Amino acid sequence: MTLATEKAPARTEEAGSSEAVKHRDPVRFVVLAALLVLLLLLVGPMLAVAVNAFKSPADYAANGPLSLPADLYWDGIVDFWNRVNFGRKLWNSFITALAVSVFGVVLSILNAYALGIGRVKGRVWFLVFFLVANLLPQEVLVYPLYFIAKEAGLYDSLIAIVVIFTVIQSAFGTYLLTSVYAEFPRELLDAAAVDGAGKWRTLWRVVVPVSGPTLAVLFTFFFIWTWNEFFLPLIFLVSNDNQTVPVALGVLQGDRMMDATTTSASALIGILPAILFFLIFQRTLTRGIAAGAIK
Amino acid sequence: MAGSVTKNRGYAVYLIPGVLASLGVIVVPLVMTVYYSFTKWTGVGDPRWAGLENYRRLVEDTLFWQSFGNIALLVIAMAVVPTLLGLVLAAVLFDYVAKHFGDRWAGLFRSGYYLPQVLPVAVTGIVWTWILHPGYGALNQILDTVGLEGLAKNWLGDEDYALYSVMAVMIWFQLGYPIVMFMSGLSRIDPSLYEAADLDGATWWQRFRKITVHMIRPEFYVVLVTTTIAALKIFAQVFVLTKGGPANSTMVPSYFAYENYFEKARVGYGSAISTVLTVLIVILAFLFLRLQHRSEELR
């Protein structure tokens, strides 16, 4: 489970083109067509949403879901945005995901430093614990957390969500990062020690910078996972002002105001931030998905 | 500043924040839930000890068995089908598309197939409720347009079809993950293996079976275990698509537990369901790990 194994596939261009000549037969176009149909099936729902979000209800009623919008109708999106105060939900999601990613990465670093580099006693058991913590369904934690949060006055507060997800995500982060740190070059640690750096300085000046790429992958995962979380935010964030994007959209399902075009409009503005992150983080993501395998 | 790096003392302090946080957020709640599962409690006042009563009722509860039966079908939709289909697709993309059309095409397909995985589950659920809506939904309207209106159904509202509709949505959602995983596994394989197979006159299918499948066994196990566990945990999609209905035909354990906790105020019963689910997941995970370990030893 190391990140360093990611290498570009070494394939020679010549071999490819000579085979391409050999195989210039209908088969390749059948394969390509099949893959394109599948792509359309997988991406189609999002395209349909994008098309229908810009239709007026009358346009949808008259021309159905497959036609292009008669003209660009922004009112559905604007109305929905204002009605649910969507800017607020975006901010809640963003600040929660950001805080969890930062704290989660820091906590993972501290744990992995002790387990992977420090090899503290009983580290195998700690790792088993973090692995199991990573597998637990949230249903088995939710009621006591809900109860404790209520007692502590943290119910319906983003703070509770940040604390809980920091710990949950860092269970995964610790597990992953420990295996990376276990292979950390000892020479670097020894050199730092010779220079008189203590453990704290060595951690922040040597270990963290060297493992930067892995930490970036962790950060990306934590951000997107937290952004997409639904179950615990659904239970903890009950008031309109505190809801995150998935919760705000999820609880509106079946609401009277949600007709076809409003649903599309709401789905579109729910999807766009995620697609934006996907584009921003794409390189880190494809590099890191193999590492995220255990999740 | 204490100690030299070669000695491993003095690192334990770095575990303190993590251990304390894990105690508060994971260990204590876990123990409390297990305790609740032996009590009768509405969430107000004090839990009353009930022994194994909740578990006895669980065994007799047909809804409980049905929710686990539904999960078995969802494992097919979320783990088995995407893994097998993803294996073939990854091999085709890596070995055929990348060679005949270029790496950019392979990368394009991979990103496109992976897209459903990065979107918030609750939001994709909304997309599908609209597409599958009996009245204004896109699917029925498309069937209508092409003259197949006889096939139009109340996809999520008819108890004969709801679970299959959810399964189809889950395949859609899950397929990209194995493809990306397997493609990254395939990039590890030494190209000379394929060249040797080509020289021996192996067909594409033979190479797929003998080299591809064999070489990416580690990824295969990881994908199978992670997707199976994801299927056991499924909540958001069910919440948004069907809320376990109609007539409990899409009930799953996590939603069943949620309903008992927060709608029926039967915290003890909900805890028992969650505990059973957790035990099942942990056992499965360790079985898979053993299996994976053994298969690696055999190689």
Automatic annotation (TrEMBL), chain A:
Family annotation (SUPFAM superfamilies): MetI-like (SSF161098)
ABC transmembrane type-1 domain: residues covered: 90-281
Localization per Swiss-Prot or TrEMBL: Cell membrane
Keywords: Cell membrane, Membrane, Transmembrane, Transmembrane helix, Transport
Topological relation to the membrane, as annotated: Multi-pass membrane protein
Membrane-spanning residues: 29-51, 90-112, 124-146, 158-182, 203-227, 263-281
Keyword Transport: yes
Gene3D superfamilies: MetI-like
UniProt similarity note: Belongs to the binding-protein-dependent transport system permease family.
PANTHER family: ABC TRANSPORTER PERMEASE PROTEIN MG189-RELATED-RELATED, SN-GLYCEROL-3-PHOSPHATE TRANSPORT SYSTEM PERMEASE PROTEIN UGPE
Protein name: Carbohydrate ABC transporter permease
From TrEMBL, chain B:
A Pfam family the protein falls into: BPD_transp_1
PROSITE patterns xrefs: ABC_TM1
Alphabetized UniProt keyword annotations: Cell membrane, Membrane, Transmembrane, Transmembrane helix, Transport
CDD domains in alphabetical order: TM_PBP2
Subcellular localization, as worded in the UniProt entry: Cell membrane
Membrane topology: Multi-pass membrane protein
Membrane-spanning intervals of the chain: 12-38, 71-93, 113-131, 161-180, 220-241, 267-289
Domain called ABC transmembrane type-1: residue spans: 68-288
InterPro entries tied to this protein: ABC_transporter_permease, MetI-like, MetI-like_sf
SUPFAM superfamilies, A to Z: MetI-like
Family affiliation: Belongs to the binding-protein-dependent transport system permease family.
Designated name of the protein: Sugar ABC transporter permease
Origin organism lineage: Bacteria, Bacillati, Actinomycetota, Actinomycetes, Micromonosporales
